[in-house]
Write a structure and sequence with these properties.
By secondary structure, the chain is of the alpha+beta class. It has two domains: 8-273 and 413-454, 2-methylcitrate dehydratase PrpD, CATH 1.10.4100; 278-401, 2-methylcitrate dehydratase PrpD (60s Ribosomal Protein L30, Chain: A). The protein contains 19 helices and six strands.
Length: 459
């Protein structure tokens, strides 16, 4: 008789604690650096934009020693992770691993930064924690792609604590069994519904922050002796059964967890080029291409957007409400309003969001945009778009974007990633400090103390 299989949380803990910084493939180190830099940039911008309604006075959260991105406040490490994650997720400008539908860095980076700063970790140790936590989240998402969303939960919110716990646990150097307990505790901290879509409530930004904080606290509770179920992932009332309505996850998840440290997915994570829901991005690319080919917005009679049916609950349903979103934040998840704004303005950047939900010209054009559910589009393994423009003279233009830009099939260059960082960071910290941050992140594999980085992150 064969021995029973080890609980998946135990296998996960075994895999991540066996990793070493000097054995990371160069492509993984490069990806960890790039995604860290991108997260810091969107964190600066998100904190400055006020999208989350978190004010400048953070003192009521409690003083500590951890850095808050773009602020002079010093908070406890758990509260710093909460605020930094919220800032990084606030503008819908943070990265995504497309097939797993995971916004990883907005959870992983704030958790790793807080833990690394507290421990005085090296830059190489920080990058290892970022990579291991990202791989954890990707595995959790790939095992049930799209199913958390179908059940009403945002994947980063419910899966995020597990990745944050891996980052915090590795940086704290906890024993394998302590990490298993921390992962078990994370199952009791998973939360985050899509109900915010109804009115664009800003709590959505906190999904990443809460996940980062929860992972850190799970490690602390495990160190204090609290235990968590080792079968938290695959158990009959465990994580997948409860949040993805999948009570037989082991065949899908086991090989993904077992492959951590061997089959690296972080280099496949995508960067965002627009501060709106990632599902909308390929449509914005299509609009830019049509405009570059000579389309004039004044000639547009109507637009037909063929969008993946699986994305409908986020960007297109109910269509009448999406055509008139209740707030600028709600507009970030509105396919017709984002397409209309891009047609009118030629691009959709951070400065185009304020006032978008009340712009009469945008709303009028959005009222002439139609939605057709696209079955078998390839989503979520890729984020595609198909758009038809009917001109007033009857001419029809059609364009298909097979996958969003920023993915491995259509990657951004390192310089494009740095340019995005500078555009986000310079208005907050200035040109000189932004350049110093780029330099430190580039040198992280050889940096002895991560506080060389965190010293540049405050106000």
């Amino acid at each position: 008789m064969s021995a029973p299989a080890a609980p998946l949380a135990a296998v996960l803990a075994d895999r991540v604690t066996a990793l070493s910084a000097d054995a990371l493939p160069p492509a993984v180190v490069r990806a960890a650096q790039d995604h860290l830099l991108d997260a810091l940039g969107v964190g600066f911008a998100g904190g400055a934009a006020g999208t989350t309604s978190i004010g400048a006075d953070l003192s009521r959260l409690g003083a500590g020693d951890a850095t808050v991105v773009g602020r002079d406040a010093r908070l406890t490490h758990a509260h710093a992770a909460l605020v930094n994650g919220t800032f990084m997720h606030a503008m819908e400008f943070d990265d995504t691993h497309v097939p797993s539908v995971i916004h990883g860095s907005a959870v992983v980076v704030p958790a790793a930064l807080a833990a690394a700063e507290r421990e005085g970790a090296s830059g190489a140790e920080l990058l290892l924690a970022v990579a291991a936590a990202w791989e954890t989240l990707i595995a959790l998402g790939l095992a049930a792609p799209g199913r958390f969303q179908s059940a009403g939960f945002q994947t980063v919110a419910v899966a995020g604590p597990f990745g944050a716990a891996v980052a915090a646990g590795l940086l704290a150097g906890v024993p394998r069994d302590t990490l298993v307990n921390a992962l078990g505790i994370c199952g009791s901290q998973a939360a985050g519904t899509f109900e915010f879509l109804r009115d664009g409530a800003t709590v959505k930004a906190m999904h990443a922050g809460w996940a980062a904080q929860s992972g850190l606290m799970a490690v602390e509770m495990a160190r204090l002796g609290v235990t968590g179920p080792a079968t938290v992932l695959e158990g009959p009332v465990g994580f997948y059964a409860s949040y993805a309505h999948d009570d037989d996850i082991t065949p899908a998840l086991a090989p993904l967890v077992d492959g951590i440290g061997r089959d690296w997915e972080l280099p496949n994570a995508a960067f965002k080029r627009y501060p709106v829901c990632h599902y909308i991005h390929p449509f914005l690319e299509a609009v830019e291409s049509l405009l570059a080919e000579g389309l004039r917005v004044e000639d547009v009679a109507s637009v037909i957007c063929h969008a993946p049916v699986e994305a409908g609950s986020v960007i297109s349903d109910p269509w009448a409400e999406k055509q008139r979103p209740s707030s600028d934040q709600a507009a970030r998840y509105s396919l017709p309003v984002c397409v209309a704004a891009a047609l009118l303005r030629g691009h959709l950047g951070p400065r185009d969001i304020p006032g978008i939900a009340s712009d009469g010209a945008v709303l009028e054009l959005a009222s002439r945009i139609e939605y057709v559910p696209w079955v078998d589009s390839g989503f979520p393994a890729r984020f595609p778009a198909r758009i038809e423009v009917v001109q007033r003279d009857g001419q029809r233009d059609e364009l298909i974007v097979p996958d969003v830009r920023g993915t491995p099939s259509r990657p951004l260059t390192v310089e494009e990633i740095r340019a995005k960082f500078r555009a986000n960071a310079e208005p907050v910290v200035g040109i000189d400090r932004a350049a110093r941050l780029v330099d430190v992140v580039e040198r992280l594999p050889a940096v002895d103390d991560v506080r060389e980085l965190t010293a540049l992150l405050g106000a």
